[in-house]
Amino acid sequence: MAFFGLFSKEKKESLDKGLEKTKSTFLSKLARSIVGKSRVDDEVLDNLEEVLITSDVGVETTLKIIERIEERVARDKVLGTDELNTILKEEIASLLEENNAQAGGELYIPTTSGDPYVIMVVGVNGVGKTTTIGKLAHQFKSAGKKVVLGAADTFRAAAVDQLIIWSDRVGVPIVQQGMGADPASVAFDTLQSAKSQGADIVIIDTAGRLHNKVNLMNELSKIKRVMEKVIPDAPHEVLLVLDGSTGQNAYEQAKQFSLATDINALAITKLDGTAKGGVVIGISDQMKIPVKYIGVGEGMNDLQLFDKNEFVDSLFS
Prior knowledge:
Blueprint: H1 9-18, H2 20-33, H3 42-54, H4 59-76, H5 84-98, E1 117-122, H6 129-142, E2 147-152, H7 157-170, E3 174-175, H8 183-197, E4 201-206, H9 213-230, E5 237-243, H10 248-260, E6 265-269, H11 279-287, E7 291-295, E8 303-305, H12 308-316
Parallel strand pairs: 1-4, 1-5, 2-3, 2-4, 5-6, 6-7
Antiparallel strand pairs: 7-8
Helix pairs in contact: 2-3, 3-4, 4-11, 5-12, 6-7, 8-9, 9-10, 10-11
């Protein structure tokens, strides 16, 4: 069985429910865009462009999708509007494929050295960063992995307290030094502790201040340097958590964080509470960073490994 489980019926139902607001809004807009039309023409394409932009797919990604459909119209001469859903679905799936979007499967790859696999989590306050860490820890532990948390977001007392609550709830150890401690020192101690315990996975929380990118960059760089003293290739994963309900603001945050540190994975949360799920497509296309996880509900198992095929199927179902 793949890590985090196969895409089960329960996960499919959870995804469908989580994307309900997005797809009901998206499909109703799509239906209105072709009323009275039997074939795809310039007016239909203009309407489709508006549908995609107002669904938070983003301007650049929308134009890319429209251009591809225009090429198909030119090639096939006549395309009926009854085919538009299928064509759009195919082009979005193709775009996600090209942009290295994950296709589900196993994301935890044990290190060749036998050291713990280190995930450093970044993101601004309020995006669901701590909750994402807690849910990840729960799912890793449920898969039989030994997990250690590190509370390196020492800028806010609440951040440390929240992570302690999650560690108790999930039943995994946490290393913390309280508010005001040196984040790099916490990360160093966490990795040393994890190694001594023979842990499989370490998840390090970090502060998410964006008002001063220079300070953020220096802090994250220092954390990385210190971790490398314990585990030379750490962190193996830098996971940026984004709030999907903020739409294009999430994309702007992704751009800012990518300037501050090297991100190689994305988690997009709170998709169940918004009609802006199209942001997953736009961020994947524009950032060229794999979307690894999506949050589609409040349950412990509602943080799902992103499967592009299931996502597109659900969006158009």
